[in-house]
Amino acid sequence: MARELMKGNEAVAEAAVRAGVEAYFGYPITPQTELLEYMSRRMPELGRAFVQAESELGAINMVYGAACTGKRVMSSSSSPGVSLMLEGISYIAGTEIPMVMVDVMRGGPGLGNIAPAQADYNQMVHGGGHGDYRPIVLAPASVQESVDLTVLAFDLADKYRSVAVVLTDGSLGQMMEPCELPPMQPLKTSFPEWSVTGSEGRERRSLSSINLDPSMQEEMNFRLMRRWQEVEANEVRYKEYFMDDAQFVVTGFGSSGRVALTAVRAARAEGIKVGLIRPITVNPFPIKVYAEIVKKVEGILVVEMNAGQMLEDVLAATKYQTPIEFFARMGGIVPFPDEVLNEIHRMVKGPLTTEGHPRDRWLNRTAHKK
Amino acid sequence: MPPKGRIVVNEMYCKGCELCIASCPQEVLALANDHITAKGYHPATIIAEGCTGCAICSIVCPEAAITVYREKTGANRIPA
Amino acid sequence: MALNESEMETMVYERPEALTNGITHYCPGCTHGTAHRLIAEVIDEMGLRDKTIGVASVGCSVFAYNYFDFDFVQAPHGRAPAMATGVKRVLPDRIVMTYQGDGDLASIGMAEIVHAAARGENISVFFLNNANYGMTGGQMAPTTLPGQKTTSSPNGRDVETQGYPIKVSELLSTLDGASYVVRRSLHDAKNIRLAKKAIRMAFETQVRGLGFSMVELLSICPTNWGMTPLNSLQWLEEKMVPYYPLGDYKVHPAVAEIKI
Fold it and tell me: Touch between chain A and chain B (3+ CB pairs, < 8 Å)?
């Protein structure tokens, strides 16, 4: 299949179309808007549903309604918009129906700015919405991966009756790269046994997230968590680079993982034995991978575009057994590969410690900055 | 002669709200104060002759608890 | 109306099939039950039961899906019109209705209802206005009358500080997207009959693809109003109807042609 030069947001939209999305509901917000705009022409052209909602609250609840029919549905937004959608995402998770959400992250908190950031990691991976639920969260680092993971998100959402999130950022959404699009999938013709479609020829059904009886709610909580155990057992995905002989490891997801790879390549060119681990599924987090490298490496550098949100998961996975260092840019700033390379140099030079918190060391190092 | 009717109050649904009683043009309904339903309400019942099967009680009943029957007049009665 | 014939008598009225045999959690006399019954009767009469999808809201009608014998989903507070939009857009040949109270529709869900109407979504909305928040115990609603005492306006709604009630039918009638917007009341048999006709018109509007329909139903809340059901009906007639005049606020010419 021919490769096409596509903008990240539009490539995700077309990937969703080819994955068989039957309804898109969204609300304009930078840096995600191209996705909505693309869908506004593409979906009607295919006779599929598109609504620009009155708000993110409206959009996510349109998704909720359409998802109850068992069809493939999605929305997309950017950080503050996703915050508004969390109520609906919790309801969707509580109703155990599939949906795909694309979060094109931008700087925050608050209105923040429209530049790329990764500060929605906690909002997506560690909940955000109320109650015990775990969304599947996929973190691409290129336009091609955005395409591939969008298709995967639909499959995983269906398989686990779960919310699946494609966690991209303003940089990945806006950049143009060549990519190969998947073939057009046929639309679903049969619907799952839970779907609400009108009761013709069967017993009536209802879908809701309410369980007034606490024991029923607890049973549901158990069901969700057991299903999550299956996700953890089957769906962990990550990429390793130069890990065979690595003495040091850099790790980051999405854009920061991509920048870190450039820095790792430069360090390798200098003869430094450093590798990279880039989680593809930030939820489920590749805990075992980190737990296993603890014994093999001398230090791990976590690179993010937030104040160390994934860092906490790396610390939990490695149990403070290996020295960990942290480096980040925030507020909509993408780190330069040189900055990461400097951090690799610093890690290699040492001294390294397992005492204290890597975030504190990083903050202290950057104390001269306002 | 006015038509003759009767109602059956399903005591599973009736909550004794008295809306049917107040709306009955023949004033032949009342709460059955001699017994209570499983939910603990005195249900509505016919207490006197005169029901015409007008069905107004069923129109105001919030619980759809009332079934209404009306006797056939001679003209439309099916011969036995 | 289905007539069950026997030799001696005709069944004039029986519980509609579109209601389950569930016992409602509504208080004695509550007109939620009346509204449920009318909707169920119309769905039976139009033969729509197996193609209707209801959207329940949050409030006293949160369990509506237990009482209607057809497919249902249950929306977050205020979002029923958005959820209904989602259902209808992917299943346009199904009949989609929301059932919402005044707190749900006229307060937290005001954006969703206004925009569903503005888009002319081909859905039917049944809006129960009982001038207070029922389920949470009788707080002031956007529809609470000036001077009306509630648990959060204990001295009576003071319009100086608490503002004025929202007249939803009047408001939605200004929107070009709305095709059928009327207000009816459930306080006596005559008005209940008129309400049922309006519900029928709302479904007929949707069946014909004519767009957004809403029937506002003035209702009672005896428990929270602190009155008997009968006194509540009287209060509704004397206090609510003058403030919320009954009538047809928007009837699209194509809807006006519908004969039922």
Answer: no
